Amino acid sequence: MVKVRAARPAEAEDLTGLVMRSKAHWGYDAAFLAACAPDLRIRPDDVTARRVVVAENGRGEVLGIASLEGAPPRAALGLLFVEPSAIGQGVGRLLYRDALRRAVDLGVHRLVIDSDPHAAGFYRAMGAVAVAAPDVEAGAAALVRFEAAPVPLADWARAWTGGGRAVHLGNVGEFNAQFADATLDPEQRPAHHYACLAAFYSPYPAALVLPRPVPRGWTELVCRQLGWTGVEVYDGLLGSDPGLADAVRARPALAGLLTGAGLPLVPWGRTRPFGRLAGRPWRPGELRYESKSAAHALFERILADGGHPGIVLPRQWRADGRWAAARMLAARTRAGESTVLKSEHGVGGSGTTVVTPERVRAAGGARAVLRRLPRGPLLVEEYVGGPASGADEGPRDLTYDGFVDDAGRAHEVGGAVMDVADGCYRGATVGPGVVPAWAEKSLTAFGTAVGRALAESGYRGWFDVDFVADGAGRLAPTETNLRLTGPSIAFMVAARLDALRGAGHLVRIADRVELGARLPEALLDEWCAALARGCAELGAVFVPAIPTAAFEPAPWLGVLVAAHSREVLDAAEALVRTEALAVGAMFGPP
Q1: What is the pLDDT of residues 514-572, one digit of tens each?
Q2: In sequence order, what are the residues at sequence separation of 6 or more whose Cβ sits closer than 8 angstroms to the Cβ of residue 400?
Q3: What φ, ψ does residue 12 adopt, rounded to 5°?
Q4: Do 73 and 39 touch, CB atoms closer than 8 A?
Q5: Is 561 helix (H, G, I), strand (E, B) or coil?
Q6: How far apart are CA 380 and CA 321, in angstroms?
Q7: pLDDT: is 242 or 312 the higher one?
Q8: Most confident stretch, 126-140, 228-242, 247-261
């Protein structure tokens, strides 16, 4: 195993030799190397003054060297060289990440890197941003200047798991099964795919507990992309039953291992079985605001106190049976009004249907529309219209994420823009500047107020508040989710990448990327690794988030992409989607 340690003054001459061998690896001639030698020489006094560290393997062999030079708030990565025989083995990545960590500890806000042109691809892949050619002496003008912004793990992320690692329980099916709702799959097959998101329930897991088997290559790639080590995976614990927490409790040795290490247990959502596993009392009614009508009533109470001029609440009615719902829908259709029909529960937009007057008439009337919807109680809600056709709409669906810690303190995580089509959630983007300025203050203030109300009600855990933007620059809250969510996964990955690669990451989660064909597991691993390399060349990060659905008859993947700019983020997503559709071409013409 390779580790980083401080260099020793007595090693200076040997380290100089390593640097020169590494420089020569790129094919420079003797005259050029001789000209570089004075600047690349390491003297014994430099080892401390330039904060030199080395990467060393288990046999004590030095494989690489890095220096962190200058004083806060600005410092430079003066040296980063790897022994030619070790190039491509992750040594440079280890040294670079160590330099960022040390820069954070020193209070450095800006890390400057003057890169050899042959190493420019490496720094781009590591998240550094190219800014300009450096202002240096003639002869070194070919260097490429990069910058990174070292930051510690976000305050909210430290508060979420107490600043340390956690055990992640992928109990998505178990959470959904609490709600007797006809829109939720009774077999929880989709939920077991979404349980793979347990990899991202915090910025750095210690263990993943999953209901279905997952590909080993997937966990290895995710760990590589996010700089994780020592992550234990316990998968394949369930057959068809959705109760993951009880499946763990039925294995006393595993339960003792997971609960006895003193690490936080993080579920997708709170359940009674999880309470038994975690030794945490289950409070009756703590998930009551998962109900869409209860959440609407909560929003009404918050707005009744005033102080939220940027928020408008759509009217909502509970239909006493399908006949009553049909009468309401017909009356609204005659008035030319669009309507939102909702089940009390549902995930990802399941159970939510937007019905326009045109759609009602095309279906043959309100009763015909309702016959096509799942059985169960319905809520009838005003449709919140957006900007007029042809206007600059901007983001239409936004969300606020936060959590209530065990002491009852509400924490703000941030806002995100969701990708929603016909009421169905398809993904989200988080990061600096994603939420438009006109919406940010209203979204944050109302989301914070909901967090306080949830804390007072006794709820503990993650929550979000979803909004729709209207045509007058206001936000309409539509529901709250008392669990982790797709945007929460993006926030976790953004926090990890910011600490690992420098501040400012935009992260997009795409719930469902269709594949052109099913691939054998080994070939899927190769394909994902190739996509990771392709995105790295763009300066982006690719992380497969939901791999198990790739083996379904109609295969798909959940994916995460991250970058420091919207342009690179969009390019990375386009690359992933294009390559996913082209998967079938691997097998040649039919």
Answers
A1: 999 999 999 999 999 999 999 999 999 999 999 999 999 999 999 999 999 999 999 99
A2: 414, 415, 443, 444, 446, 447, 450, 464, 465, 467
A3: -55, -45
A4: no
A5: strand
A6: 11
A7: 312
A8: 247-261
pLDDT (tens digit per residue) in 384-430: 988 765 556 689 999 999 999 999 999 999 999 999 987 788 999 99
Nearest to 400 by CA among 467, 348, 350, 306: 467
Average pLDDT, the chain: 92
Q: What is the pLDDT of residue 177?
A: 87
Phi, psi (degrees; rounded to nearest 5) at 236:
70, 35
Instruction: Tell me whether the omega of the peptide bond preceding residue 150 falls within 30 degrees of 0, making it cis.
Output: no
Q: What is the 3-state secondary structure (H, E, C) of 410-445?
A: EEEEEEEEEEEECCEEEEEEECCCCCCHHHHHHHHH
Taking each continuous run of H as one helix and of E as one strand, the counts in the chain are: 20, 23
Amino acid at 291: S
Secondary structure of 249-264 as H, E, C letters: HCCHHHHHHHHCCCCC
pLDDT at res. 185: 57
- Please give the residue that has the higher pLDDT: either 133 or 444: 444
Q: How far apart are the first and last CA of the chain?
A: 46
pLDDT band (50, 70, 90) for residue 188? low
C-beta of residue 209 within 8 angstroms of C-beta of residue 248: yes
For residue 341, give Cα distances in angstroms to 136, 152, 297, 544.
65, 44, 17, 34
How far CA 541 is from CA of 35, 150, 438, 578, in Å, comes to 37, 17, 30, 16
Tokens of 405: 């810690």
CA-wise closest residue to 204 among 527, 495, 543: 495
Q: Among 39-53, 237-251, 405-419, which is the least confidently predicted range?
A: 237-251
The span from the CA of 17 to the CA of 259, in Å, is 50
* Model pLDDT, residue 139: 46
Nearest to 251 by CA among 307, 8, 243, 524: 243
Q: What is the pLDDT of residues 306-323, one digit of tens each?
A: 889 999 999 999 998 888
Burial class (CB in 10 A: 0-12, 13-18, 19+), 448: middle
What is the pLDDT averaged over residues 444-465?
A: 97
Are 267 and 280 a contacting pair, CB within 8 Å?
no
Give the dihedral of Cα atoms 573, 158, 247, 425; nearest 10 deg: -30
Provide φ and ψ at 558, rounded to 5°: -95, 135
| Range 158-182 burial, b when 16+ CB lie within 10 A, else e | eebbeeebbbbbbbbbbbbbbbebe
% pLDDT > 90, the chain: 82
Residue 194 and residue 169 in contact, taking contact as beta carbons nearer than 8 Å = no
* Tally of residues, the chain: 590
**CA dist list (Å): 380 to 325, 334, 366, 430, 471:** 7, 15, 12, 31, 21
Query: DSSP letter string over 16-34?
Result: HHHHHHHHHTT---HHHHH
